Amino acid sequence: MTGGVSFGGVTAPAAPGCLDENAVARYLADDTRDDEREAVRAHLDTCDRCRDLVAGLVRTLVTPEPDDALPETLARGTNLSRYVVLDPVGRGGMGVVYAAYDPELDRKVALKLLRSDLSTSAAGLGRSQLLTEAQAMARLSHPNVITVFDVGTWNDEVFFAMEFVRGQTLRAAQSAPEARARRTLELYLAAGTGLAAAHQAGIVHRDFKPDNVLVGEDGRVRVTDFGLARKPEQVDARMAGTPAYMAPEQWRGAPADERTDQYSFCVALYEALYGSRPVRAAGERSGSGPAGFPPPRTARVPPGVTRVLARGLQPDPAQRWPSMEALVGALRAARRPFRLRTLLAVGVLLLATAGVWAQHGLQLLRVNRELTSAAERLPELLRAQADLIDLQAQVGLGAEGVLAAFGQASNMDAALGLAENASLEHQLAEAHEVMRSADLPGLKSRDALLLVNAWGSVIFNLADLDAHGGAAPGLPLLVGTMDGIASDELWSAPTLAAIGVPLATAVRGDDLLLVSARPVVRGSSVVGAMLTGSWLDRGLLADLGRAVGARVALHAPDGGWAGARWEPAPPVGRLSQVRSGGRDLAVYGVALGAPGSRTPTGEAFAYRELQAESGLAAPALRWALSLLSAAAAAWLAWRRWWFR
Amino acid sequence: MSAVFPHADVFWARLPRAAALRARPGVEAQLAEKLEAARSARPQLAVDPAAFVEHWATQLSRSPEAEAELDRIHLADLLLAFACGCGDPEALRLFRAELFPAAVSAVRGVEASGAFVEEVTQQLLERILVSPGGRPRILDYAGRGSLEHWLRAAALRLALNARRDSRRAPEQLASDSRWDAVAPTADLQLGLLQQRFGPDFGTAVKESMAELSSQDRSLLRLHFLNGLSLNQIGAVYQVNKSTISRRLSRARETLLARTRERLERTLRMAPSELESLMRVLGPGLELSLTSVLMSEAGSTT
Asked: With contact defined as beta carbons under 8 Å apart, do B296 and B205 qualify?
């Protein structure tokens, strides 16, 4: 102002009162006085240009530091009610959550400080109502609901002291790369259980979403932020989209209830399982059914779970599940890859299969036992046969004598070659008498005679059979009785061999008649012959021979039976199964040998038809059941793998 | 005394109202000491001592509190500025070497293009060293604060003016297109919401902004418009970073709360609904603030 000096800046400041370069330099110097500083600050607040100027200078003079502290509102160490604030651990729509220390109980707590506008009654939900709900929360104790220790106000803001959970949000847990649908579903089930518990305590969440659920490091799921969402009031009809997890009735302004939480829960679960929130397909207007159905097929979700979601996402609350508990129950039942009754059915099938096989095994065992005992009787039979042969030798008759006796008996109508006109009774009486008078051990009575008769066995010589009947090689010793042979057939047989090798064969269709003649003795002379015979299936004989080998018949080394004395060798139990003519036979063989000889020269066989096997034990059924069981087990395993 | 402080008469002649200062015991010894210190800090400068003492006194006389100023004056810098103003070649060399880079850096902070920096610094040199109207502007430097800061401020103001001039027609964002500044999102729902509510939202933000205290507004602008970090804003206001952090987040919360109220009124939306809307729009909020503030800045310029 003096000496013609023009004061001010290099370029004129925008307005009087603005800062010139000298003022700026002074402001930036270390020795600025407080009053000067205050004046400049006040000016900077009102003058864009000066502020831009100072900001520009600062930008080149001061290196920026990261603004990590921006969201922080409370400094570490701040006393909030009785708690000491440590660090902010989260920030959400509702406010900031701090880790804090409770010196009275010496524990770490989570402090949620509600945003001031949420804390004030002007913002929809009255503070008193908020506190009431919070108190209800504090009374509620459930493993899947966050534990609220304390509720109060601090500096006109509502705060909650809650258990401190180390872990992550459900959203983080379900977005983790290793998260599987099965595990996610388990987490949601736990969260749903917590919601249901809250509902039973009369608390509606109003803002369920995966960000409001904590999954602790211990794996426990806890639902948080109950009842903090404000009540919907009026809704603009122009509203187009449905933000995230809100139920339609919330948009319409209806009061939120349990079913509203159901809807939000289902939106969240849908998103977790299918990767996107349910939306209506393009072109589908406000349908009456739930949005997002049918869901994308890319995800492996059990159909039962999808059905639960479809009901929970019904736009009409009345059509949803009657309660959260019902929803959780249905979800719990549906989450299994297979229902209990499926498992039960498969179990029954497996049991039936096992039963059928067990019955089969038991039957085999029984047959085996029967045959073994039959086989044990074989030596007895053979011994009886040998006795007869012995008897023949004792009476001193040769084969010729017997043949002669036969020859004399001209009446061939009778089966027994005794006195011509004798009745059967008479003949038997005669025979009895013979047997009684004969000095034969074991043949002293009529019973004994009949016994021998009943045991009348066919001892078949292989060579003879080949010569006369052409039957298959290898014939077993067969136990049988005379069963109704027509006499003319009997006598039309071409050859009667010598006594002791009682033999006749007749062929009728596929059957082979084997006849044996037995001497009937009176005094010391043979007065007739008892004939026995039985029908044999030639096919069966052949099959038996094939099954057990060629050496199946008893035969004497000299080709005849006379004088041969057979004793059974120690039995060699051999049970085998033979199929013949569409029948299953169990055959038990015993080796036989000459007396004193250890070398078996023949084998005796007992057989039994396995005809009794039918019904459940039938092989077709057995195999069908087995196949079905295997398929069912494989299906179960696949289902289990599919929904991991 | 005059033997101690040369040209005392010249000095006091320029400060007719500084009787109190003059009466201070030993004041001339102090003055002599300061002068000596300044000269020994810049021994290579050849200036007329009488002229410099006169210049010094003149600068002091510009302040109503000459006595207080005397203690704080950056005399060595004043000496250099004076020498530059007198055209002393050594001073000009020093200026080039020590101060000019600071000016260049200030200009570059506004726009880094070589042409711009060249043009503005050229203009700056002309204005402060050459004397278009007979007096180099560097002689205006009053010794308050460092010469470097003075020079930076001068350079920056020139640069800001130059840029403002080059944008005669500031690109004011159309009111409907505020959301365009927001990064495109893959979320269709969000996109629709932005399209539908963006303009209302922008208006609400703008009106809420106007209702804020000038300090809050200023803070928000520094952060979102000037893009300063918290510590830089702290430097602007010369307060510590945590204070700025607290104030800024409070300003931000207030702005959001007011915006929400305004939207509630204009859109007739339920609070809970709005809550969701704000949450959905949330990620774009900072950007939208920036764009709203930018459009506001454009319209006031």
From this structure: no
| Same-domain pairing of B210 and B278 | yes
Per the model's pLDDT, the better-predicted residue between A258 and B181 turns out to be A258
Give the CA-trace dihedral at A508, A509, A512, A516, to 10 degrees: -10
Report the pLDDT averaged over residues B112-120. Answer: 83
Q: Spell out which residues of chain A touch residue B217, defining contact as CB-CB under 8 Å.
A: 45
pTM here is 0.41
The one catalytic residue among A30, A45, A68, A207: A207
* Chain B residues closer than 8 Å to A72 by CB: 245, 249
CB pairs under 8 A between A and B: 227
Contact yes or no for B62 and A232 at CB 8 A: no
Q: For residue B2, tell me if it sits in a domain.
A: no
Domains of chain A are 1-64 (no CATH), 68-164 (3.30.200.20), 166-335 (1.10.510.10), 362-537+544-564 (no CATH)
CA-based nearest distance A53→chain B, Å: 6
CA A432 to the chain's CA centroid: 71
φ, ψ of residue A222 in degrees (nearest 5): -135, 130
Contact A399, A574 (CB under 8 A): no
The answer to whether A545 touches A603, Cβ cutoff 8 Å, is no
List, for residues A57-68, the tens digit of each pLDDT value: 888 888 777 655
Q: Is B1 within a domain?
A: no
SS3 annotation, A91-130: ECCCEEEEEEEECCCCEEEEEEEECHHHHCHHHCCCHHHH
Cα torsion A275, A281, A282, A286 to 10°: value is: -130
Q: In this structure, which amino acid lies at residue A323?
A: S
Alpha helices in chain B (DSSP H): 8-14, 19-23, 27-41, 49-61, 66-72, 75-85, 89-94, 100-110, 114-129, 147-166, 188-211, 214-220, 230-237, 241-267, 271-281, 285-300
Candidates A10, A18, A57: best to mutate against B (most CBs of B within 10 A) is A10
**Interatomic CA distance for residues B70 and B57, integer angstroms:** 9
Residues B143, B54 share a domain: yes
Q: Which residues of A touch B300 (CB under 8 A)?
A: 48
The number of residues in chain B equals: 301
B38 contacts B75 by C-beta, under 8 angstroms: yes
pLDDT recorded at residue A66: 62
Residues B223, B281 within the same domain? yes
Q: Do A24 and B149 touch (CB under 8 A)?
A: yes
Q: Which residues, at least 6 apart from B15, have a Cβ–Cβ distance to it below 8 Å?
A: B21, B22, B57, B60, B61, B66
Q: Which residues neighbour A414 within 8 Å (Cβ) at sequence distance 6 or greater?
A: A424, A427, A487
Tell me if B224 is assigned to some domain. Answer: yes
Which candidate in A2, A6, A18, A26 is best for mutational testing of the B interface (most B CBs within 10 A)?
Answer: A26
Can you name the residues that pair with A512 across neighbouring β-strands?
Answer: A507, A536
| Token output for A568 | 């059974």
**Cα-based torsion angle of the residue sequence B140, B142, B144, B150 in order, rounded to the nearest 10 degrees:** 20
* Helix, strand, coil percentages, rounded to 5, for chain A: 40, 20, 40
Q: Do A11 and B127 touch (CB under 8 A)?
A: yes
Q: How far is CA A260 from CA A20, A59, A136, A327, in A?
A: 63, 51, 19, 13
List, in order, residues 6 or more apart from A271 with CB less than 8 Å away: A210, A277, A278
Domain residues for the domain of B72 are 8-166
A207 given a catalytic annotation? yes
- Could you tell me which chain A residue has the CA closest to the CA of B78? A22
Check: complex ipTM more than 0.95: no
Cα gap A272→A134, rounded to integer Å: 28
Q: Both tokens of residue A76?
A: 């570490």
Give the model confidence (pLDDT) of B161-219 as tens digits: 888 777 643 333 333 333 333 333 334 455 555 566 667 777 777 788 888 888 888 88
